[in-house]
Amino acid sequence: MDYEDKRSKLVESLKKRAFLTKPSVIKAMLKVPRHKFLPKGAIESAYIDSPLSIGIGQTISAPHMNAMMCELLELTEGEKVLEIGTGSGYHAALCAELVAPDYSKNPGHVYTIERHKELADKAEESLINTGYGDIVTVICGDGTLGYPQEAPFHKILVTASSPKKVPPPLKKQLKNGGILCIPAGSKEWGQDLYIISKKENKFDSKRVTGVRFVPLIGEWGFPE
Ligand code: SAH
Questions:
Q1: What is the pTM for the complete model shown?
Q2: pLDDT mean over 118-134
Q3: First vs last C-alpha separation in the chain
């Protein structure tokens, strides 16, 4: 079976398990080659629904988590997105497919921040190699501070677990009418995924499900 067949099978199973329902997200998951974002040793496991190690103690989330976060964020064409925790760059590529499926017509953009330079460089290389170089900007730094230069953002996703108090810069840099998707809780155990919507500078937070992510480390995150 080649990678494309394996990817279709994975997408079918995520649909059956109701993690994937939106046609736009299904299309993006079918298109983005997850195996091209992984270190050599993990490539053969690319289309198993499991988190995988990407080095420096970090992990790429399981595909069902990518699917779930993309669906919850209701990403649409033309939006400006901020991702905290680039990791492999795979989730940023999925977001790029959703906000700029036809870049020439609708230039949505994804800004993604990674604190480890080695991962940021590798992710940038993978994004360029897979054709997302113009749609995704990779920044090396502390994502808990957000990215004020390009704020406000229609959508913000955090792919590392925050302390219970959500970093205030991220709430500030979210557009009114925007959505923030963030796991929050304790550093090691007991985290929950939240969807926070902002309307007229007021926030409405909903818990979605229990999750487990690597910690968000930084000024408004956990200490190292
Ligand atoms: N979204 C990624 C997986 C993220 S794993 C993917 O698709 O592969 C979480 C990442 O968040 C790790 O790479 C970790 O180094 C990074 N991280 C943790 N705290 C951070 C911070 N304050 N700013 C930016 N990146 C951070």
A1: 0.97
A2: 97
A3: 42
